[in-house]
Protein 1
Amino acid sequence: MMEPANRRRLAAITAADIVGYSGRMEADEAGTLEQLRLLFEEMVAPSVRAFDGRVFKTMGDGFLAEFKSALGAVEHARHLQAAVAA
């Protein structure tokens, strides 16, 4: 059986960005970009994957991630906030 070309699906999306990013960039552009790269590689991407999600867009200091369930999106957000706070 063929699937319709415009098949719909449900997804939960999280959006995140860094508070104070512009000020950090103004004070130390190279250092801020390095910290952002490390944050994404060491915390964001692993957390998204751990909760069965995928990052589908990055922009400056933010990203959008898609999850198969709302629970996965919320748990990822809680996990990431706790990791960054620590």
Note: Residues 29-50 form the longest helix (22 residues).
Protein 2
Amino acid sequence: FKSIDEFFNNVPAGSVIATNINIKQKPIKIENYTPGNLDINVSLRGNHTLYVYAKDNLNLEITKQDINWYKNEDTMVVKISDMAGNLIREELLPDDGEAEASKITKTAQTRKINIPNIKEGVYRIDLLNNADTFIRRIKINQSKLVVQNKIFPVDNKLYKITETKPLRIYTKYEMDYKIDFSTAHREGLQDVMINNRIFKIEDKHKTLSYLMKGHKNLIEIYLPKNDISVTVPGYFSFTKDSYFEPFDYYVTSLENYKDADYIYTDYKEPIIDGDWMIGEVTFDIKEVYVKDGKLSIMLNARHLRDEKYKSYTIPVDWIKVTLHRGPK
């Protein structure tokens, strides 16, 4: 490839790119796509990012309900964007009128969004709220919809606005990966099943990680009690048929470079000075951690945790910091 743009316009489908740079991915094109109808009658807590493949008219119906466990207003913002990052529609679902930590629940609120004659392709839907608001239902007139990375289903009698009911969700990922489970309540302790294999969630406020072999076929995750967050590097769907992967290739963090087909990074080669290798890095002050006028720096040599490197050391001769400050 003669340029980065040429590379990203011609990445082989299914490739894995390891990077430490925020890159824009190329959305897929589904041939002979036929819109359908999805009714996701599942309660979700917190922010969720959805991807939908849309064609013709996009009709989206979102229902939210406040549980009012905490003080302050509970609003939800719905943002629909195209894959170039352009905001197409933004809608606000207001507070239910109960701003105190009363645990009083009122009638759920519904907002209908219609975007006619939408250009066929992948769109991102961000559902932005806080832990005091539940997404109670999602209805859409399209047949492909997934949740990115993290899902937090909460259909559990603990919250008194819904019953405890089991949920099946689906995912796949072609590299080796891990699934993380976490719950904050006793009611969320349960035996989850991944393709009929049982994983016991026995501790509150603790993330339990299970390593999984990469697979090309969908796996089923069964949650008998919900009230548990589940995290994967890919996507979730609520039905097998609605699953799709929004992009032509996978993007993973740079630390997973061994599993990648390509590495894309802004790595700067060190300067060789005798027996020393000198590396330089520049940070914008907005990107670093400053507290009480003090700048904190951490040096992280991740490979030293590997058994074969456990006796290694990295001598640091000096660290020079130069602060450039503009005029007031």
Note: Helices lie at 4-8.
